[in-house]
Amino acid sequence: MKRAIFLVAAVSACGGSRFAQPTAGTREAWVVPAGAATETADAPFRQSAPEVASLPPRELPVFEDSRLSNGARIITVKHGNLPIAAVRVVIDRGADQAPPGVASFVAAMLFAGTEHRSSIVLHQAFNEMGASIDSSASYDAITLDLRVLRANLEPALSRVADILRWSTFPDEEFDRARAQQLTRLDRAAAAPGALASDTLQTMLYPESHPYHVALAGTPEAIRSMTKADVVRFYKSYFVPSRTTFLVAGTFDRAALVHRLELELKAWTGESPPLHQVQSQQARPERRIMLIDRPGDSQSNIAIGWRGAPLGSEEELGLRGLGYALAGGIHGLLDRNMRGGHGMTYGVQAQLMLRRGPGPFVITTAVQRDRSGDALKAIAQELATVRATGLDKSTLPSANRAWLAFETGESTAKSMIRMALDGESVDVFRARFLKMMNVPREEILRVAREYLDPAAMQIVVVGDAKSVKPQLETAALGAVELAK
Amino acid sequence: VRLAFVVMLGLLFAACAPARSPYHLDYAFPLNIELPTEKYRLANGLEVILHTEHANPLVAVSLWYHVGSKDDPPGRAGMAHLFEHLMFDGSRHVGAGQHEALLARTGADNVNATTSRDRTEYHETVPAAELELAFWLESDRMAFLLDSVNQATLDRERAVVKNELRLRYDNASYGRLPAFMYSALYDDKHSYHALPIGDEAQLDAVTLDDIRAFYRAFYVPSDATIVLAGDFDPAIVKEMIEKYFGPIAPGKPGIVKRAPQPSSIDRERRLIIEAEVERPMIQAMWSVPPLFAPGSPEIALGADALGGIVSYVMVKQDKVAERVSTWVDDGEIASSLGLTVTLRPEVSPEQAMSKLDWALDHARGQRARFDQVMFAINRAKHLSSLVYEAEELESRANLLNRYNHYRGSPAYVGTELTRRSEVTPEAAHEALVEFLPFNRRVLALVTPTKGAPRAGRLVASR
After folding, report:
1. DSSP character for A340?
2. How far apart are CA B340 and CA B316, in angstroms?
3. B36 CB near a chain A CB, below 8 Å?
4. Residue B434 to residue A343, Cβ atoms within 8 A
5. How big is the CA angle at A428 (ends A422 and A431), to the nearest 5 degrees?
6. Angstrom distance (rounded) from CA B152 to CA B281
7. What phi and psi values does residue B61 have, to the nearest 5 degrees?
8. Residue A114: DSSP 8-state
9. How far apart are CA B458 and CA B462, in angstroms?
10. Do the Cβ atoms of B279 and B177 come closer than 8 Å?
11. Could you say which of A8, A200, A354, B386 would form a disulfide bridge with A358 (CB–CB 3.0 to 4.6 Å)?
12. Over the stretch A275-334, which tens digit does the pLDDT of each residue have?
């Protein structure tokens, strides 16, 4: 201790603070001359919004699609002017093929070390290249995302190739990952929004269905998981035929392909037969579940139905419906609950995109004493939409879709559909163009077919003493109380 | 131990001369990205900054009013932020809800606003051909907002803001910690005493007259800057800006606080907090130099190194903590450095405090622990993150506004890259020693307690 104090004294003796220079100025102030006008005069051009201009037609980006000699796919797009590239590596299978939590665990451990590099060496290398890396699991796939300076794209990809082929999941890292995963689950259970959404999934899907359990798994599943489970998933699905590299940015395609070919040409393997996810199942009856959190000042609400699978005709209609209800910047539920009544800070509605019929979910957090009103407002908006459909002002503008290609990162991410089940560039392009103009009748049709009040599942996380009577008054059915 | 001490001394003397890190990385860095801009003022004082980028037919609009929660009137904490909400409820020619509706119809996105301690920013990304609509909307609320402000809109937005307060703070685990920490670090005379969100009682106190006075004082063209980044023709756009914003009256600007205001804390403050959470926690906070002031980049990199050392000691070596994170909350009149240690469930914060102090001593005393390689790597991360930040148009426009607000010039990205690249481990270490003394810090010790609010309650403060 003493020694440390001595050092501190010595440092400050080095000629005073090096930081004590005067602060350089911030933005300069502007002095309004005396007698300047204080009221702005009105003008004719301000009376109404300027005419909506007609936009010049746009072309989709050019996707260059090829395969490495081992079968792995590589799709690239030239994008932007900055010297950077975004890479998304997709392994075309995820949590729907594995016991609960395993796929998330594999994703969480992708940077834990390989036959050639320890976790620390991998992280240092990526950081040193100025690369940002991330990995995640969905029910459909494992993804590894990389953002890197163009100059360092090739060495970064060589590390990625190492991870894809030679990950070892070392014991010590496995134990650490398990502890972290358990902490994450604890945190999710303590976060009312996550608790509501996770509970909703258990009500929408039977126990035998992979979507019954949250992606991160359950504490029991994580505690009993073995390294063998993780390695089995890795060996089964990290194979060339299930791997796609999506790359967007400024780079030399030939050099990129050459590097991947060099790193991966000896990589082989095939995956076992797939478990098919059931898609046709009886709809659940309406249920209302209340989870008691005494003292909560807000109620977190999650409402859901089973939706339609990715790639189906109904997918586009349900996405448009989600946008119209509360997916964009001016949704119907937002207007009602926030803009009309101020009962919430926000509400969201969307189809969760999955290979099987993912849930269509509405979530919000409302002040405790408006919990019943919130459910009534949602039920009423849904009834109106199902009865009369949507007016034009609620539909997404076709232009909005182009934002998917604004950055290299968003471009690489929005290309993921092509990496699932080997979708071709042509099919992807056709669906993208179709998505921009989903007919109103189609949205009305899916709203009637899917958002059936009789099959609606409702979860409310909040203070039961205050909330239960409100839910009963809302008269949507019997309220089950969970602890 | 003796050898380490000699090494430390050696480094100590080296640090008295402006040394460069001996370690150079093997990988390339673009230290020369440029974001060229044209900046000018209209006759009414409005600042305009134009930056063209033709990669996509989009334009990002970023409009900063240089007023933030630091300018909240006394007894009205949360006023600047509440005001921001009212800006979306229509103005003389724009009906309620029309701002978002009209933009949504064109396919715009990123339509939102944020309020910080220093400024309030409004933004939207629009298809290039729809830029005029954004000018029409922004100029109308800059000039004619009060026509549509009434008791009903105020009450509704106040309710929305209170729900935001509940969502982010009152109903979240550890949610009240920031309010406790900032109010202890910055006394009630300091402009950063309260959080931008404010509190229920002060939000309730806001009247329509307060709103009107705030608008007249601070929402004036001379205290605003509009940045456009994207695909447009500057000649056409300048004419449009003159048409929509030029005629707006200069008004009578109020006084916006800008001078540096260090924390007056002169001892250690310790807050004892109970919360119904799974894990105990220690949080520490210090007041450090304002953003871009001398010492600011050193602190940013020093915070990373500090986090690494504390994590090594408490997570890996002593196994009392699960996670350690550090952050710097940058500000115009002061910045704040925070350290959060999430403890293992069985560890008490009081027990862990001695380990934390040992780790802090270690970080402050032994510069040998500032691993040169790790430091250079962290620095590389800081440099590249700035390049990524410039990619999305909205983020780029915001970056230009940030440079203009804090440095008086949008052309600062090159300087910032250079400044970051020149920080040495020695300088970062000196910054920690100088700005993170034990006797000018706030500590929060959170003990899991059944029946306490999840957000936390303050049971003692000393």
Report:
1. I
2. 16
3. no
4. no
5. 135
6. 42
7. -110, 130
8. B
9. 11
10. no
11. A354
12. 887 766 778 899 999 999 999 999 999 999 999 999 999 999 999 999 999 987 889 999
Identity at B171, one-letter amino acid code: N
**Measured between alpha carbons, how far is B337 from B172 in angstroms, rounded to an integer?**
22
Average pLDDT of the segment spanning B288-310: 93
Q: How far is CA A190 from CA A77, B103, B455, in A?
A: 42, 37, 11
Neighboring chain B residues of A180 at a CB cutoff of 8 Å: 322
Structure-block tokens of residue B441: 């810090």
The answer to whether residue A116 neighbours chain B at the CB level (below 8 Å) is no
Within B2-41, residue ranges assigned H as helices are 2-16
Nearest 5°: phi and psi at B274? -115, 140
Enter the tokens of residue A408: 């290299």
Question: How much is the pTM?
Answer: 0.92
CA B245 to chain centroid, in Å, comes to 28
- pLDDT over 60 at A254, yes or no: yes
- Note every long-range contact of A206-209, with CB atoms under 8 Å and residues 24 or more positions apart, other chains counting: A206/A281, A208/A278, A209/A277, A209/A278, A209/A281
Could you tell me where the DSSP H helices lie in A389-475? Answer: 408-414, 416-419, 425-435, 440-450, 464-474
> What is the distance of C-alpha A280 from the center of its chain?
26
> How far is it, in rounded angstroms, from Cα B99 to Cα A302?
28
Distances (CA, A) of B408 to B290, B404, B413: 14, 4, 13
The torsion angles phi and psi of A71, rounded to 5 degrees, stand at 105, -15
Question: In the prediction, which pLDDT does B30 show?
Answer: 60
Side by side, the strands of the sheet bearing B109-115 are: B38-41, B47-52, B224-230, B58-65, B120-127, B109-115
- Distance between CA atoms of A360 and A438, rounded to whole angstroms? 18
Collapsing DSSP to helix, strand or coil, B224 comes out as strand
Burial tier of B462 (Cβ tally within 10 Å: 0-12, 13-18, 19+): exposed
Cross-chain CB nearest to A40 (options B28, B144, B173): B144
Whether B325 and chain A come into contact, CB under 8 Å, resolves to no
Range A175-183 average pLDDT:
91
| Among B residues 93-152, those touching chain A with beta carbons less than 8 Å apart | 93-94, 96-97, 100-109, 111-112, 125, 127, 129-130, 132-133, 136-137, 139-140, 143-144
Token duo for residue B205: 């106190």
Amino acid at B259: A
Structural tokens at position A462: 């909040």
Helix and strand element counts for chain B (H, E): 15, 12
Angle between helices B393-407 and B413-421 (to 10 degrees): 80
* Residues above pLDDT 70, as percent of chain B: 92
Cα A437 from Cα A434, distance rounded (Å)? 6
pLDDT, one tens digit per residue, over B230-286 is 999 999 999 999 999 999 999 999 988 888 888 999 999 999 999 999 999 999 999
Query: Token pair for residue B89?
Result: 């409820």
Cα–Cα distance, B188 to B191 (Å, whole number): 8
- pLDDT, tens only, B58-85: 999 999 999 999 999 999 999 999 999 9
Nearest-angstrom CA–CA distance, B390 and A80: 11
| Amino acid letter, residue B72 | D
**Does A19 contact B289 at a Cβ distance shorter than 8 Å?**
yes
End-to-end Cα separation, chain A, in angstroms: 50
Which run of H or of E encompasses B275?
strand B269-275
- Tell me the mean pLDDT in the region A30-58: 89
Return d(Cα B228, Cα B60) in angstroms, integer.
6
Chain A CB contacts of B453 below 8 Å: 295
For residue A309, the surrounding DSSP H or E stretch is strand A298-309
Q: Does A9 have pLDDT greater than 50?
A: no
Instruction: Write out the two tokens for A95.
Output: 């949590």
* Amino acid residing at B59: V
Burial of B52 (0-12, 13-18, 19+ CB in 10 A): middle
